[in-house]
Amino acid sequence: MAFDGIVISNIVKELNHTILGGRINKIAQPENDELLLTIKSNKTQYRLLISASASLPLIYYTKHNKVSPLTAPNFCMLLRKHLNNSRIIEISQPSLERIIEFKIEHLNELGDVCYKVLIVEIMGKHSNIIFCDDKKMIIDSIKHISAHISSIREVLPGRSYFIPETMHKLNPLTVEEDDFLQDVFGKPTNVSKAIYTSFTGISPVVAEEICYRAGLDSDVSANSLSEIEKTHLFHTFLRTMDDVKEGNFHPNIIFKDEEPLEYASIELTQYSSLKSETYESISELLETYYATKNIITRIRQKSTDLRKVVQTSLERNYKKLDLQKKQMKDTEKKDKYKIYGELINAYGYDIEEGVKHFEALNYYTNERITIPLDPTLSPSQNAQRYFERYNKLKRTFDALTVHLKETEDEITHLESISNALNIALTDDDLNQIKEELMDYGYVKRKHTKHKKMNMKSEPFHYISSDGYHMYVGKNNFQNEELTFKFAVGHDWWFHAKGVPGSHVIVKSNGDELPDRTFEEAGKLAGYYSSLRGAKKVEIDYTEKKNIKKPSGGKPGFVIYYTNYSFVIDAEIAGIAVVDNM
CA torsion 20→21→27→31, rounded to 10°? Predict the structure, then answer.
């Protein structure tokens, strides 16, 4: 992610267009390191969230209010004293630093006009919110930094505020070509790192993007480039910075497998193969990105116990299957023992007493074979011994055939649940999966008398380019519901061949589906399977009327004998989503 100086510049532009000249109406401090300012401007109310969290510093507009403590912290009370009903007269960003300065006009106790500066530093673990007078003397800050904590700069009441020059970086908005060439190409490192370590406000992802736009490999050594390549890189850098200076921003998020991967305020063309979404507002982008990240992280955390149950059961069944296969291999001798017994009975009159083996013609293959004998037993007893071995192995074979099928079915079932956990997005999705695990004894129910959980989870819903509705089951319960209760005879059913995955139903409305709809439904079936990310996935598809449920089958398990197949790239970018939450 790239909460860098360019994103800050984008935020400053948005703030200037919305709240410049507005009045601070409310000040709250929901968390120890967080402010929520309510600002009225041009008859509109804005909520500005400012977080100086060491793990996730942010600043953006939000539509959501947050609960504040009953007793406001001292820093919040100080701001209320000075800034309630104050007017924001200037919003600026020094150089391309990750800093925003709000110059604020207010009236003191005597009614005289005074000025204060609220400084927001978005600098990772060094983030802070600092309140200064008009001379940049610190009045207070949301975090106090003493000399014991930092030898570079104290952030305490009464100290002068300054931006520490710890990295000695250049201002990318004013850099000249000679300085660029000297600073970037004098570093013994790769090109992208040389860029983001030379300039303020440039993140690694933006440095990579500049290299990509210049057609250069970002991993090559900076001092190994030719003069032409160096000049071309500088002019590419210059054009990017010109966009920043002119406010030509392009807020966009890059998604991989429906999960936000990166974001920036310049277009990230280096990710052309992945899904990209653009936003009018940088605040909307930030709220979307971090809210989505938070949902995915939270669901992964909440699904940890379920994943552990499934994984433990899978590992146990994998070991059981290996053992059963070894035992099954041992039963391959059963037919040989049966033949030995038959041949001993057939040729027993020729067997001398006390011999350890004898040769006979195998009338099944017309070949001569040597049969081992126990010299202490008679021919009939040797034959009986081989028949007993045969019968024992045959019983083992018959039992193992059943057990192998049960173990393989259980593994398939558990793998399908594992795939459902990978695509779960909400608590209700997890509840459905947990309900299935409880139904099959993998998770114990807390009470013997229970009601099934009230679940609101719905299948994924897409619309094809030709306007046909496509539904994707998130788990086995939904697969069962879609295929056997929702779909009708001439609707089309899709599934990744031979692997755990979702059922995809296309409502045909009795029409003959266009080829493009078949392709898009196949992409969905491949994407929502255990082969997600593969370039080639084989898809089976058929009309719903050809799908049957096996007797005693687990939810979502089907059989079919009439189908078509094709191979597809399981990439769903561009397929219209109706509502996946």
Answer: 10
